[in-house]
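4.2 Preliminary Data

To establish feasibility before requesting continued support, the project team ran the inverse folding procedure on a target of 303 residues. The structure was first converted into the token representation described in Section 3, and no sequence information of any kind was made available to the design step. The complete token record follows.
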């Protein structure tokens, strides 16, 4: 299911204009989303995928990556399999285990940010085949989204796909129960703003999962680890713990795929805790302390 087949009224409930935060309407022929607050804000629906960002609005840093992903979209799934033999892992199975740990209930809204060719959306449906999930995927590469659209259709999985930037999502506040992300955050141009935006669209008590390349402190010290980083610098990067916004709690950091990918899972504070955070700022101190301790431990382990 994409925007052309979706029950529009339901999808529109989630969406808001990324420019002025007004609600959106669809035109009678289903080719445009039009802002209710300022009708000059118009977003084309291109072959079922609403596009919320123009090329010139993308930073040069992000453009470079989008260009690469557009170029390699059709080959991406094959290319990523090369990681498996190189690292001696089965990433699909590793991510399946990660997804299995997310508490998923029926009727939940799940957002996959930087969905690429839709791997996590398909995986989540494989893991929870009978659960009624509202799946949404966002990416900045139309090439990758086209491949995701085809794969999801072939698998009979209904999902709303959108062309948008990770740091300017076209959703109302508190729209999603679960947000998942794999394989992009390491190279995003503004990680603090991006995480802030994800937390904005996450519901109170909602779950956030982030996974990307980055060796564990132990793996960094081994010959194998040193070789991996020499061949691909992304594996030398660290989990972006220090950028986690204060509205999060229960942060868990793990490594999967033979210590080559980090995963961060956490929850957004409850409504009550969020209120307290606004008035007292106490939770902010809690997450700061927790993250500082985690970082201290990481640095000690790396020595
Ligand atoms: C390595 S791929 C990962 C795709 C998918 N999540 C997976 O695990 O296979 C990274 C994706 O991030 C997307 N991306 C990069 N920068 C982005 C941005 N600023 N906003 C949205 N998506 C972005 C790319 O287009 C690409 O599809
Ligand atoms: Zn608007």
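Position-by-position output of the design step:
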């Amino acid at each position: 299911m994409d925007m052309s087949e979706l029950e529009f009224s339901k999808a529109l409930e989630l969406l808001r204009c990324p420019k002025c935060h007004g609600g959106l309407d669809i035109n009678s022929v289903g080719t445009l989303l039009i802002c209710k607050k300022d009708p000059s804000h118009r977003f084309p629906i291109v072959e079922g995928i609403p596009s919320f960002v123009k090329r010139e609005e993308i930073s040069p840093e992000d453009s470079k990556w989008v260009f690469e992903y557009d170029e390699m979209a059709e080959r991406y799934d094959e290319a990523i399999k090369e990681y498996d033999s190189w690292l001696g892992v089965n990433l699909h199975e590793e991510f399946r285990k990660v997804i299995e740990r997310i508490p998923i209930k029926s009727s939940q809204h799940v957002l996959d940010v930087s969905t690429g060719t839709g791997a996590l959306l398909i995986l989540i449906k494989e893991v929870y085949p009978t659960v009624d999930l509202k799946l949404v995927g966002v990416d900045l590469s139309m090439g990758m989204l086209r491949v995701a659209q085809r794969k999801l259709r072939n698998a009979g999985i209904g999902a709303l796909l959108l062309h948008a930037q990770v740091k300017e999502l076209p959703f109302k506040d508190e729209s999603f129960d679960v947000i998942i992300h794999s394989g992009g955050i390491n190279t995003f141009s503004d990680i603090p703003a991006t995480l802030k935006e994800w937390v904005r669209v996450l519901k109170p008590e909602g779950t956030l999962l982030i996974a990307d390349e980055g060796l564990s402190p132990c793996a960094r010290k081994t010959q194998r680890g040193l070789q991996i980083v020499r061949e691909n610098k992304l594996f030398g990067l660290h989990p972006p713990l220090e950028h986690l916004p204060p509205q999060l709690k229960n942060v868990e950091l793990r490594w999967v795929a033979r210590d080559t990918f980090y995963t961060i899972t956490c929850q957004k504070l409850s409504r009550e805790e969020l209120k307290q955070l606004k008035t007292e700022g106490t939770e902010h101190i809690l997450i700061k302390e927790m993250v500082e301790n985690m970082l201290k431990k990481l640095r000690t382990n790396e020595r």
